[in-house]
Amino acid sequence: MKKYYKVFISTISIIFILSVLYYIIFPSKGEYNSDSADTILWAKASIDAGGLFNENFEYAALFTFGGQLLMIPFIKLFGYGITANICGMVVFYLLFLTALFFIFKKMDFSLTWNLFSLAVVMMLISLSVKMREIFWQHIIYYSLGMLFLYVGICLVDTSAKEIHKNLVKYDYKQMDGSTLAKKIKNRVREIVLLLITFVWFMLCSTNQTVTFAMLVVPLLGALIGLIVLNPLTPKVYADNKLEKKHFDSIIVKLISVVTLASLLGYRFGTFLKRNVSSSYQNGYSKMSLPETWPDHLKSFFPALLDMMGIGYLDDVQLMSAKGVIALYKVVCAILLILIPFLAIISWKKIKSIKFRFMILIHFILCTIIMLGFVCGFLSAANWRISPVYVSCIVTSLLYVKWLFKDIKTKNLSVLICIGMFALAAISFVGICKLKPDYGKDKFAMKMVDYLEENGYTDGYATFWNSALITLLSNGKIRLRNIAIDGADMRLYHYQQESNWFKDEELEKNTFILTTADEYTNLVLDGCEVANYASNFIVNDDFVIMEYTFNPASVMK
Fold it and tell me: Is residue 61 included in any domain, yes or no?
């Protein structure tokens, strides 16, 4: 590749990568919803309790080793709010970017190839509003699981190299001082790396089911698969500078470390979670009825298209700009699914053990997610296949790079790269269209301004407004959850601490915020709680009911 091509590709790639950072810091807040606040809510709950979990908090999900740990220092620095959340997401972005960088580096990617691959992954992850929420607004199962997986792969690969160094036999009688010192140094490095790997897998496994599904089982399955499913030929061993007996020893040692660490971590996680639970997390982990499985399977491809930003297209002309882009995304989605299968077809030609390892991990991970999607309730939300989407992107890039090394398939590789870069460019343009103050005209943003200007601080709102407005106001406005069902208005403890509903500030001047539609339904159904209000502020978009006491006392 000519030098100026490398400079051009690297420069554009860096711009693409940095555009995600721009999105996180500036326009992302315009796409936030109340679900985006979950990670920082868990962090606040931990701070309030002075421990890892808060027994008075109703969690959507339980992570002993999760993103809330990144948020805690920033809450202590800036207080609860959007500033702390954005800082935590910037740190996560850097961690995820670094993990991917080392994955590609370990696959022997040059700097140009590495930057190109990072740009493609980051842009394709940011292709839709939902994917941007999943990865860049909060830290949840899917993004956290992929980070755990890629860090785990890097640690296992590095540990394998150190183990291999110490499998070389020395004649101690003829060994001089420098050689002995080197031998001791290598042994110490191996022990340290295996300890780090052990600790990483143990900590990750305290999250239990999620970590086992997205890290432990795929990685252990791939290690076993390298030996059992497809025995390596002598040439493959030679190409990787290995002997079969050494290879088997490395695999056995790694399997032992990962298995022991994961089992200990799982047990430790059970102990840490003994006094708390998560109804939402437990709900989607159940099996679904077998008669629903065909429908779940049929919904996979539409779900993938949704992750790529293809929404409702009923009124879109095929040959319009939007129609052409949608069709292009469909073609790319098909290729992202098919390319990893081409890697399987090319298995015997692939001499790199590391690449074979990554292929096995991809298919085991996808199988686990698809089993949950088809046979469980993962299909209830499209974004739950996001790990499959990300893994398809990474595995496709690895295969395209492998094609590039062969003169016979180099042109095909370049063609696919151009296609990927074009899709990345579409995502980049989408991000650039989002101005730094994007979302200022949305309901939540306008309510933050109105409530702050008029001195409202403590009150209630339905879930989709309460958590979001509290977050966007940097905690200056503190809204608790209520649920409205016909004439029934009740406290809603989901993602809330029970003590928040008993705050002394609520005993003074407080309020209930509703949208105009919510209020209309309350009036039509004869809501009793509304009758206790001392004053009403009625607007075209919202209604504020003011109280001189805590209205929680008259809610069910």
Answer: no
From the list 393, 419, 386, 418, the residue with the least C-alpha distance to 339 is: 393
- Within 212-317, residue ranges assigned H as helices are 217-228, 234-239, 244-272, 279-283, 293-298, 300-307
CB 121 within 8 A of CB 397: yes
Which of 276, 298, 324 corresponds to the end of one domain? 276
Give every CB contact of residue 51 below 8 A, 6+ residues apart in sequence: none
| Long-range contacts of 263-267, Cβ-Cβ distance < 8 Å, separation of 24 or more | 263/205, 264/202, 264/205, 265/201, 265/202, 265/203, 265/204, 265/205, 265/206, 265/211, 266/205, 266/206, 266/208, 266/212
Q: Please list the pLDDT of the chain residue by residue as tens digits (556 residues).
A: 578 889 999 999 999 999 999 999 999 999 999 999 999 999 999 999 999 999 999 999 999 999 999 999 999 999 999 999 999 999 999 999 999 999 999 999 999 999 999 999 999 999 999 999 999 999 999 999 999 999 999 999 999 999 888 876 655 555 666 777 777 888 899 999 999 999 999 999 999 988 999 999 999 999 999 888 766 666 666 666 666 777 888 999 999 999 999 999 999 999 999 888 776 665 556 788 899 999 999 999 999 999 998 877 777 787 888 899 999 999 999 999 999 999 999 998 998 999 999 999 999 999 999 999 999 888 888 889 999 999 999 999 999 999 999 989 999 999 999 999 999 999 999 999 999 999 999 999 999 999 999 999 999 999 999 999 999 999 999 999 999 988 889 999 999 998 888 877 787 789 999 999 999 988 878 888 998 999 999 999 999 999 999 998 888 7
How far apart (Å, rounded) are the C-alpha atoms in residues 459 and 546? 9
Nearest to 333 by CA among 311, 359, 304: 304
**Would 145 be classed as within a structural domain?**
no
Residue 263 resides in a domain: yes
* Secondary structure class of 37 (helix, strand, coil): helix
**Position 255 in a domain:** yes
Distance of CA 382 to the CA centre of its chain: 14
Contacts of 170 (CB under 8 A, 6+ apart): 179, 183
* Residue 326 to residue 324: CA distance in whole angstroms: 5
Q: How many domains does the chain have?
A: 2
Structural domain boundaries enclosing 204: 170-276
Q: Per this entry, what is the length of the chain?
A: 556
Instruction: Give Cα separations from 439 to 150, 190, 267, 375, 514 (angstroms).
Output: 33, 51, 44, 38, 20
Q: Of the residues 241, 276, 311, which one is the last residue of a structural domain?
A: 276
Task: Give CA–CA dist 220/237, Å, rounded.
Answer: 20
Separation between Cα atoms, residue 216 and residue 365, nearest integer Å = 10
| Token pair for 529 | 């709680």
Residue among 281, 211, 372 at smallest CA distance from 62: 281
